[in-house]
Amino acid sequence: MKAASLSPVLGSLSLSLAAFALPACGAPTSYEMRLTTSAGMGAGGGMAAMFGAMTGGSSVTRSMHLQLTSPNDIPAGYEANHAVPAAMRIGPQLPLRGERRSGGSAASGDEREPDGRVLIYWGCSPTVPKGQPEVIDFRALAGKVPPEIMGMARQSRTQGKSSGDETSLPPRSILWPNGDRDFNGIPAEASAVGEHLVKASFMKDDIRYNINPALDFLEPMNLKARSENLKAAIPLTWDGLARSRGWDLQAFGANGEKEMVIWMAARNKQPMLPASQRECTIPEGIFAKSEMAMLTGIAHGPVQGFSYPPQPPGEKKKLPLIWSATVRVMGYDNVILGMPTSEDPHGRTEPASGPGNESAADSVLPSGVGNVLKGIFGR
Q1: Bridge partners (DSSP) listed for residue 334
Q2: Angle between helices 366-377 and 147-157 (to 10 degrees)
Q3: Residue 45 sits in which domain range?
Q4: Is the dihedral of CA 357, 358, 363, 364 positive or negative?
Q5: Which of 7, 155, 226, 246 is most buried by its number of CB atoms within 10 A?
């Protein structure tokens, strides 16, 4: 397999690296608001949320992520906050905060080549289509693994370690709710509709925009797996959402510590599935060797951009932007595959309670996937 063919497959593993890219000199201040409706174990606290749902508690939460990114270092002693409308039922002033960023080199850690395999399946079908899985054998590809993937592996191994000669630089990104000790969650009845105002002591111009009902929080996706048998085909269903632009579905399982299985509803499509689709099937047997697997679903809601100054209509020459803001609305849901399930009074399919389920479920949460990656990339 040519190294170039790895890019579409492994690209999703390195998407988070883009968050660390800094604006070029002269770029406008950028702002992002992400409104998320989460269900399943993603709803406000992982295992606690899951077991709360099994005992009759709410398994749906709303969250908001705010991030301001400056093209320049943010000066010490800054003040910045986001004023939200009364309908949010929090605030009304939300503090934006950031930490100094590393300016030195981290400890080099273990530089061994990765050792293990990733099996990749895709598509909605009861059986595995011809030509699948695609197998990425890291041992066979020694020296050809994309550098960003190796960098992620090294970072995971050196997390929390220091070379002793690190320096720190002022932040360029400040966020919320990170660092807000007074934050206790967003109420279930909260709405983002109304005027939003961002002020910062280092910005000459405020960021101001209005959210209409079409940009408000989505309803829950209610993703369900209709079979608990990992050796069989697994039918999936979810609710239709009027404002969804489409869906992403992915599942991850581990065959020991050296092999990961990944399934995607589609490849090279964003979103993976159209908004009109309401069901999909994971092919038979692809997780047969896994004790459990984790299924995640994403509902892509509306996205809208705002900017200042307003651009003259019909003009080819654009005015230099002072700031730009993007509001993204999405839904998130996840399900543990391979655990006995039962319908709760609200119609959601939840893992059945019982001794040992918590530790079993933990094995396929992010730490479980992390253990497989450590097995592949070295400890």
Answers
A1: 296
A2: 110
A3: 32-377
A4: positive
A5: 246
Contacts of 7 (CB under 8 A, 6+ apart): 146
Eight-state DSSP code of residue 354: -
- Cβ contact 293:251 at 8 Å: yes
Indicate the number of domains in the chain: 1
Q: What are phi and psi of 329, to 5 degrees?
A: -115, 130
> Does any domain span residue 22?
no
Before 309, cis peptide (omega within 30)?
A: yes
Q: Mind listing the pLDDT tens digit for each residue in 149-158?
A: 666 555 655 5
The owner of tokens 């939840």 is 350
Q: How far is the first Cα of the chain from the last one, in angstroms, to the nearest whole number?
A: 26
SS3 362: helix
How do beta strands 168-169 and 279-282 pair?
A: unpaired
pLDDT at 363 over 50: no
Which runs of E-coded beta strand occur in 190-322?
Answer: 194-200, 207-211, 224-225, 234-237, 246-254, 259-264, 273-274, 279-282, 293-308
**Is residue 18 in some structural domain?**
no
Structure confidence by residue, pLDDT tens digits, 248-279: 999 999 999 899 999 999 999 999 999 999 99
DSSP secondary structure of 25-66: TTPPEEEEEEEEEEEGGGTTTTHHHHHHHHTT---EEEEEEE
Identify which of 352, 250, 344, 258 has the alpha carbon closest to the alpha carbon of residue 294. 250
Residue type, 114: P
Length of the chain: 379
DSSP string, 110-171: --PPP--EEEEEESS-SSPPTT--EEEETTTTTT-S-HHHHHHHHHHHSTT---S---EE--
